[in-house]
Amino acid sequence: MIPAHPPLGRPGHHPAATARDLTKIHDMGGHQVTALDRVSLDVHQGHFTAIMGPSGSGKSTLMHCLAGLDSPSSGAAWIGEVNLAELSDRQLTLMRRDRIGFIFQAFHLLPTLTVMENITLPMTLAGKRPDQRWLTEVIVTLGLRDRLAHRPPQLSGGQQQRVACARALLNQPEIIFADEPTGNLDSRAGAEVLRLLQESVRQLGQSIVMVTHDPVAASYADRVVFLADGRIVDELQQPTADRVLDCMRMFDPMGDA
Ligand SMILES: Nc1ncnc2c1ncn2[C@@H]1O[C@H](COP(=O)(O)OP(=O)(O)OP(=O)(O)O)[C@@H](O)[C@H]1O
């Protein structure tokens, strides 16, 4: 049964993404693994939300269910006002293409297109024209100005990650899902990416959900949600790296995170 629509804050004002009682159980040949256990979460519009937790706590599963890349065993997920369970496969594909941005480790860059073509592809597909000022700012800040004519196989892993970032930010989708966006960047390039993500939230009202293991990366967010054993166990508002680290130690005493 699909639960009723989540309560709304103001008429016409939905969270950017909503999880209600999301449960995901994997069947491993008769052995059941509960990856998510009745998780409910409102991802606020125009906020930068980080998801943290020990390895195996369910972070990726939560993000995949919220982004329509995986379907829950029970419970429901919404993007804006749309219940993902009510969409056909085609509608879900269009939703992911037009309304959601992805910054994932598996970059999904198209190897035969140039960097510039990759960055502008979602807008081209949606028949939209990029804002030239924002395009320039994204390209310059991410250090891609000299790489625009290259193709992804000619770039390092970190450069490819920055192209994926530029592509998601340029399109200004309703929500961006980022999985370890600074995972293979050095600390300076990582800080630039995080500052740009933060700036897009503060100046453009972008909504971002980021999975990270890094307390410093999480400190750029407005809010950090902590998962352990498939459940939300705590959250911090306006986090600092030290407070994030304290929370991580509490929920991951083995230092696995
Ligand atoms: N396809 C699958 N089949 C079986 N079990 C799975 C599958 N995907 C995830 N799991 C299990 O579900 C749990 C949550 O996995 P998930 O990848 O969401 O955790 P995570 O917090 O993102 O971990 P990490 O930080 O290591 O990436 C783990 O116990 C994992 O082994």
Automatic annotation (TrEMBL):
Keywords: ATP-binding, Nucleotide-binding, Transport. The keyword tRNA processing does not apply. One of its GO terms (cellular component) is membrane protein complex. SUPFAM superfamilies: P-loop containing nucleoside triphosphate hydrolases. Residues 17-254 form the ABC transporter domain. SMART domains: AAA (SM00382). Gene3D superfamilies: P-loop containing nucleotide triphosphate hydrolases. It holds the Pfam family ABC_tran. CDD domains: ABC_MJ0796_LolCDE_FtsE. GO terms for molecular function: ATP binding; ATP hydrolysis activity; transmembrane transporter activity. This is ABC transporter domain-containing protein. It comes from Streptomyces chattanoogensis.
